[in-house]
Specification:
The chain is mostly helical. It contains four helices and four strands, in the order βαβαβαβα. The protein has two domains: 46 residues, no CATH class; 96 residues, 3-Layer(aba) Sandwich (Rossmann fold). The longest helix is centred in the middle third of the chain and has 29 residues. It is globular.
Length: 143
């Protein structure tokens, strides 16, 4: 099992509870870093069978006055992180006709407001977009 995240101390503590786990400090917005960690784990444990896309940030603000750089941070983490992880493992999963990708999204995306302008978009990427590409895959999937 590969545990990825920004806080390596917490990951190491969690990994200690398992017999076959490694922890890596990874920024999911950095595709190369993300892929390197996945390939390192695959070299030890074999092909990826399960990816749980759970990284996310919510920088609360009002669309009228929030710094657009905060929007970019949320999009990079909450949208690109999902797409990065999915792309890194998807080809091998399709080749093996086996694998599961779970995308975790926020309930905040169900509410539309000026306070959380990007949460709806991020929720759509985590839930609706994967359903579209999953339906085109020749392997058993659920969405």
């Amino acid at each position: 099992m590969l545990l990825l995240g920004r806080r390596i101390e917490k990951l190491n503590a969690l990994a200690a509870d398992f017999d076959h786990a490694m922890a890596e400090a990874v920024d999911v917005t950095d595709y190369d870093q993300f892929e390197a960690a996945v390939r390192k784990a695959e070299a030890v444990y074999g092909p990826t069978e399960l990816l749980i896309n759970n990284a996310g940030v919510m920088l609360l603000g009002n669309v009228q006055n929030q710094d657009p750089r905060e929007w970019q941070t949320m999009l990079d983490t909450n949208v690109m992180g999902v797409l990065n992880g999915t792309q890194i493992v998807l080809n091998e999963m399709r080749e093996h006709e086996h694998g599961t990708i779970l995308n975790v999204s926020s309930l905040a995306g169900k509410r539309h407001s000026l306070i959380m302008p990007l949460m709806w978009l991020q929720s759509m990427v985590s839930t609706a977009y994967p359903k579209r590409f999953v339906k085109k895959m020749p392997v058993k999937t659920c969405g």
